Amino acid sequence: MEYRKLGKNGPEISVIGFGSWAIGGGGWASAWGNQDDELSAESVRVALYNGINFFDTAAVYGLGHSEEVIGKVLKGDRDKVVLATKCGLVWDENKHISKNGTYDSILREAEESLRRLGTDYIDLYQMHWPDTDANAPAEETMRAMDKLVQDGKVRYVGVSNYNVSLLEASLSVRHVDSLQPPYSILRPAVEKEILPFCLEQGIGVVAYSPLTSGLLSGNYTYDTKFSDDDWRSRNAAHTGEGLRKNVDRVEKLKVIASRYGITMPQLAIAYDLAHPALTSALVGVRKPSHILSVLPAIGLKLDEATLAEIRKIAVE
Q1: Can 125 be counted among the known catalytic residues?
Q2: Is the model's pLDDT at 316 over the cut of 80?
Q3: N or C: which end of the chain has fewer CB within 10 A?
């Protein structure tokens, strides 16, 4: 396993991280469908055995269930891992999810996450989405995060899905240890401004959806369908003309992967990790093979000509 320092002040984390969105299971708005908890637990153990020390979850995944699963499995290995979770998405008794970045909500959510995770501290606490409902500016959210650090309940502070202006506002309160943006061959937008800004400011970057929620698995066809309880069944990139265009792009990318003698997912991970701003790429996991199959991407170097070729295909 390879490890990189998370920003200028953070811990050393594995370049492949464990993403636990799907292991939250079904029954909520952004679910991937039902999930077997024992299979999830086995996946966590396999990841840990293979040197992965960065485990990322969120309160909203399964409306608390993902945190409970992760916390239970890692309980005996707590001091060996960097445990990350997220706040800022809350739900009511009807499972309706809304954004809330207010000071009091962040402090309350942290207590609930600590309880579900079965720990007395969170290594990396991240604001999941900016509070565009205007409940609170980014500065207020950061003040709450800083309070949690002062109280010893959080060690490092991160944000997710923030743009440069929101990062600047957050930095006016305290240093931001990490950003978690969507970043993949098929979603390269952050390369333009956000990744260079993070590199300049010493903000670590943890890419989520490096396989673009399965599109870069190489397994999809024009006829791929998702169940009604899978959020991808309602996503433009995974259905209709969007799916067709992405399948065509992936077929061209497979030619590059075959030149290197690697799989499509391995190429996708290697592409992300080639960017100097990247600390880690989060691989979404539902079963052990999702982790084991991408490990060969570690240490794989793509030359500049190949990276340029990949970028060209991505925007076709």
Answers
A1: no
A2: no
A3: C
